[in-house]
Amino acid sequence: MLDGDMSYTRHGRKIGRPDKGDRDVLYTRVPREVGDAIRARAEETGMTISDVVAAFAADALGMSHLAPRPAPAEQEELPLKTA
Fold this sequence. Notes:
Shape: extended
Structural class: mainly alpha
Radius of gyration: 16 Å
Number of strands: 0
Largest sheet: none
Number of helices: 2
């Protein structure tokens, strides 16, 4: 991401989601039941679908240290206003 794409506070600090590092984009199709299970896991853990799939892949490949993990339970979800 270019610095021009990142928003800054008036104190010069970056705002937004922290960088997750170098990533590769993969596309796949899974059976409906698998997709439903992934969506359910994402909902129950508060993770994105992409992070759930990445965690499953990293764990299955013996690279658990690279797997995204859910945010700690003590963090509260901020309410978002809808348009």
